[in-house]
Amino acid sequence: MELIFTEKLKTHWNENKFLCVGLDPQIDKLPEVIRKNYKNKAEQIFQFNKAIIDATAEYVCAFKPNSAFYEMYGSEGFAVLQKTIAYIHENYEAMPVILDAKRGDIGNTNQGYATAAFDILNADAITLHSYLGQEAVQPFLERKDKGIILLVKTSNKGSSEFQNLIIEDNGTKMPLYQKVALNISQKWNTYGNCGVVVGATYPEELAKVRALVGDIPFLIPGIGAQGGDLQATVTAGKDSKSQGMIINAGRSILFASNDIDYAQAAKKEAQKLYQQIISYL
């Protein structure tokens, strides 16, 4: 029987694996050896992804391709994304794949997005905007075996423009991101398949969200190139079982080296982060 998203995650969490590798290839940053050996862009991306996956899989709890880095190449890019996810499932059966697509639209449109993500691409989870409310994202929430990971407090510098606005809810004042987190955990998570996105660049907010929502999965971007503090992230983000985290690193692992040793360099960086996370638990 195929494992559902949360079961796949727990398999790795029980081995103290909380690192997620963002598979976000950029053609102009690919190693020379890749660009030299493969002339087709689609094949360059796939061969690079394959090498990174094989080099880092033993240290991670998930892989997270961002759809933008594939969609920009049209149908060929979509095919590479599908091929990359298939490669992970075929070679690392219990490894979950999170499609970082940040979808969000009205209900019937979301039905199409859900079909594309889960039935065509065969992703295990997807990131979503929550701005349209529960009714709109219900087509995703109904997919009980899949992870539905909703934006709460994002890692970018401008996230406070709306997310930190103070609102009043039943006489209690709180930032908007906290109200979103509460609704997700208390009203939307009927099937136990919801998670939230909270950036490592905001450790205080990370701790507040964890206190509000309890032991649901946190996808935590912002480590590495974005400058998030790993120790503060682990301290603030871990749940009551010292688990619950999907700590994403992308560029710092993918492009650890631009030379022929790029896969070994990625492995070394992933191993370092894996060991640091364990030391901070």
Identify the overall geometry. globular
Using the coordinates above, name the CATH class: Alpha Beta
Strand order of the largest sheet: 2-1-10-9-8-5-4-3
Total strand segments? 10
Question: Can you tell me the number of structural domains?
Answer: 1
Assigned CATH superfamily? Aldolase class I
Structural class: alpha/beta
Helix content: 40-55%
Q: Largest sheet, described in full?
A: 8 strands, parallel
Q: SSE order in H/E notation?
A: HEHHEHHEHEHEHEEHEHEHEHH
CATH fold category name:
TIM Barrel
Q: Please state the CA-atom Rg, rounded to the nearest Å.
A: 18 Å
Low-confidence stretches: none
Layout of SSEs?
Blueprint: H1 5-13, E1 19-23, H2 32-37, H3 41-56, E2 60-65, H4 68-71, H5 74-91, E3 98-103, H6 107-120, E4 125-128, H7 134-141, E5 147-153, H8 160-163, E6 166-169, E7 172-175, H9 176-188, E8 194-198, H10 203-213, E9 218-220, H11 230-237, E10 245-249, H12 251-254, H13 262-280
Parallel strand pairs: 1-2, 1-10, 3-4, 4-5, 5-8, 8-9, 9-10
Antiparallel strand pairs: 6-7
Helix pairs in contact: 3-5, 3-13, 6-7, 9-10, 10-11, 11-13
Structure overview:
By secondary structure, the protein is of the alpha/beta class. It has one domain (5-280): Alpha-Beta Barrel (TIM Barrel), CATH 3.20.20.70. The protein has helices at 5-13, 32-37, 41-56, 68-71, 74-91, 107-120, 134-141, 160-163, 176-188, 203-213, 230-237, 251-254, 262-280; strands spanning 19-23, 60-65, 98-103, 125-128, 147-153, 166-169, 172-175, 194-198, 218-220, 245-249. The strands form 2 sheets. It has an 8-stranded parallel beta sheet with strand order 2-1-10-9-8-5-4-3. The longest helix is centred in the last third of the chain and has 19 residues, at 262-280. The radius of gyration is 18 Å and the shape is globular.
